[in-house]
Amino acid sequence: MSALLTSLTLAALAAPSSTPASPAGVTWTLGTIQPAGRGAITPGAALARPTLRLDGSGASLTVTGNTGCSPLSAQAALKGSALVVRGVQAGGSERCTDAALSLREDYLRLLNATTRYDLSGGTLILSGGAGRLTFTRTGGAMTDTSTTQTILYPLDGTWQMRVTPGPAGPERGQALLRFTFSGAKVTVAGLAGCNTVTGSGAVVGQQVVFGGVASTRKLCPGAAGTAENRLLGLLRAPLTIERQGAALVLRGQSGQLTLTRAPVPATPVSVLPDPAATYALTRLNGQPAPQTLRPVTLTFKDGRLGGSDGCNSVGGAYVIRAGRVELDGGLMGTKMACADQPDLGFQSFFEQRPTLSVQGTTLILRAAEDTWEFQAR
């Protein structure tokens, strides 16, 4: 099968043709979908339209976008009018309605079978043996494929979010997320309303694309749940990057996230935790620690952070750098379900690289607006 696909790819790319305009550097939105042997279908007005963007040149194109209900990423090769898409990843479909799921499956099937493109003005047609996809240009300008768009201003560092509502969008103050950029890599962690979220992705061209965003599963009813779902939907689709003064705007189809540089806390005077001690959580944000099935504990020994999040045992490699606890590879833990257990956001807290200080037998960790205090025992 591998040899066959390689032969088909080489045959498609070797097909003689003139050199048409390139579709790269543009955001395209699906207009119609036409499976082989059927008429063109226009997605219903209630459905989010799939999008597609190509960045790069020749045999090294990066594909990003969404299926209408899940993120999309792939690679592609372009020569003349031949276009071969490979390695399509479309995330999970758990948030797709039945209608959106049907569109998603047809879209992915036709995209995987693409062998040719036709470009006329603001219309792009991708075709192959399974049918054709017709797109209209909705963002960007067509570029010379010998270059890839890059962000011309520095993003590196940590940014925190306030929500700018779109139509019926999230209200300000319901969420606190921190985005950390390091070159082309980007991570997100924090509170989406009721649930904590974590995710990692990349800066591709003028967009941020998250490969996956995970969240806890606490029930979030009413308006708060609606707002949280809209926010998670934004994070699970490509976001166009814009700079507005000192702010960074990540703009999606249903709203935008406005980020400002996170203040850098002063590095506290600290000493290393006692490797012989087990530290138990006593206060959270100035209040007595919530009751949990097991005590929330921490140990710092031989380069590993261990303990309990109140339900499951956790552990992972760590270093303390410039007064911050930095995990190497994240925290691993057991998978025990704890009914009626308050979710403290233990893992997402540590993913924010909290500052650490030790005052006698008290260990204090701070990240964003959270302060956790532990006592040695």
Automatic annotation (TrEMBL):
Signal peptide limits: 1-23
Top-level division of the source organism's lineage: Bacteria
InterPro entries recorded: DUF306_Meta_HslJ (IPR005184), HslJ-like_sf (IPR038670), Hsp_HslJ-like (IPR053147)
Keyword Signal attributed: yes
Residue ranges of every copy of the DUF306 domain listed in the record: 27-135, 156-259, 278-374
Keywords recorded for this protein, A-Z: Signal
Protein name per the record: META domain-containing protein
Species whose genome carries this gene: Deinococcus xianganensis
